[in-house]
Amino acid sequence: MASEKVKVAIVGSGNIGTDLMFKIRKSNSLELTWMVGVVPDSDGLRRARELGYQTTHKGIDDLKDHLDDFEIVFDATTAHAHYRHAELLKQWGKIAIDLTPAAVGPYVVPVVNLDQYLDLQNVNLVTCGGQATVPMVHAVSRVTPVKYAEIVSTVASRSAGPGTRQNIDEFTETTARGLAEVGGAERGKAIIVLNPADPPIIMRNTVYVSLEKGADREAIKGSIEEMVSEVQRYVPGYHLKSAPIFDEDRVTILLEVEGAGDYLPKFSGNLDIMTSAAVRVAEGFAGHLKKRKTTGRERHQESVA
Amino acid sequence: MSAKKIWITDTTLRDGDHAMSHQYTVDQVRKIAQVLDEAGVPVIEVAHGDGLGGSSLQYGFSLEKEDKYLRAAAEVITHGRMAFLLVPGIGTRKELEEAAKIGAKVARVATHCTEADISEQHIKMAKDLGLDVHTFLMMSHMTPPEALAGQAKLMESYGADCIYVVDSAGAQLVDQARERVRALRKALDPKTEVGFHAHNNLGLAVGNSVAAIEEGATRIDGSTCGLGAGAGNTQTEAMVAVLSRMGIETGIDLFKIMDVANDIVYPVMRQQHVPRIDRSSLTIGYAGVYSTFLLFANRAAEKFGVEARDILVELGRRKMVGGQEDMIIDVAVELANKAKNKPASARAEARA
Question: A62, A252, B36, B286: which has the fewest Cβ within 10 Å?
Answer without folding.
Answer: A62
